Amino acid sequence: TRKVTTHRLMEMKQRGEKISMLTAYDYSMAKLIDQAGMDVILVGDSASNVMAGNVTTLPITLDQMIYHGKSVMKAVQRSLVVVDLPFGTYQGNSKEALASAIRVMKETHADCIKLEGGSEIRESIERILCAGIPVMGHLGLTPQSINKFGTYTVRAREEAEAQKLIDDAHLLEEIGCFAIVLEKIPAELAARVASELSIPIIGIGAGGGVDGQVLVMHDMLGINMGFSPRFLRRYANIGEEITRAVQAYIEDVKTQDFPNEKEQY
Ligand code: KIV
Ligand code: NA
Questions:
Q1: 119 Cβ contact partners less than 8 Å away, ≥ 6 residues apart
Q2: Which of 82, 157, 184, 230, CA to CA, is 20 to 30 A from 216?
Q3: 45 Cβ below 6 A of ligand 1
Q4: How many angstroms separate the CA atoms of 209 and 114, rounded?
Q5: How far apart are CA 13 and CA 213, in angstroms?
Q6: Is the ipTM above a cut-off of 0.85?
Q7: Please, what's the largest Cα pairwise distance for the chain?
Q8: For a substitution probing ligand 1, which of 26, 46, 213 has the most ligand atoms within 8 Å of its CB?
């Protein structure tokens, strides 16, 4: 049960062992996921959607990400923990980006941060790396740019966008990112990036030719029941289980079946 490090992810890629990664936002779930043996836990800004009920990831604040990061860190013993920098805390001003990353590291004690984008945010990434904070990149469908894209469909199908993604991936490796998430792009393109780069490439909706996979916990557990894109595999129907349990409890309260004689003092 050695703690997973960024260095170890690199070794896993070298020996062809696939990297498992899943999101978590709270203490109780992070504890289960860590103890199950997950390599990487992502405190994703998808918390904006699945925890706070927002339509996009844009509204979540740095304070809110830090709250989730702290909760997760209290539970985790083995997994590498990555915290997303939220929208508006790192684009455009590299000093502000560094200040945001430092707050996450100091207040949550997480292992590293993730942010979305390539050449546009090069300065921000370089400044964060200079402070000794490991950075995971994120290219392809980057949900913080949904208002630019206009849709959540597959990215980089066209030659120009695919070429920019390849260039950005190489740039992120050159400046020192330890891994990159590729979201919702053609499998062939993702496999090409994974073979050209020596840092691990973790895919979501990017096929099997990459070095690891990441999913949003609520999606793969069937808690978020309305969301079923092609790339999602459901490992449980927890939403249905919760509904069944809650309805049984309501029924037992109404019929005075609960509590019984053994369930009181
Ligand atoms: O916030 C998130 O959950 C993510 C994953 C989809 C990679 O960034
Ligand atoms: Na994210």
A1: 167, 168, 171
A2: 157
A3: yes
A4: 22
A5: 12
A6: yes
A7: 71
A8: 46
Q: At which residue do the structure tokens 């941060």 appear?
A: 113
Q: Which long-range contacts (CB under 8 A, 24 or more apart) does 190-195 make?
A: 190/140, 192/166, 193/165, 193/166, 193/169
Residue 56 tokens, joined: 């996009």
In the reported structure, the alpha carbon of residue 167 is separated from the centroid of ligand 1 by a whole-number distance in angstroms of 22
Q: Which residue has the tokens 């790339």?
A: 231
SS3 label, residue 35: helix
Residues serving a catalytic function are: 183
Residue range 115-172, pLDDT digits in tens: 999 999 999 999 999 999 999 999 999 999 999 999 999 999 999 999 999 999 999 9
215 alpha carbon – ligand 2 mean position (Å): 11
Q: Which two tokens stand for residue 107?
A: 């207040």
Q: Is the CB of 104 under 6 A from ligand 1?
A: no
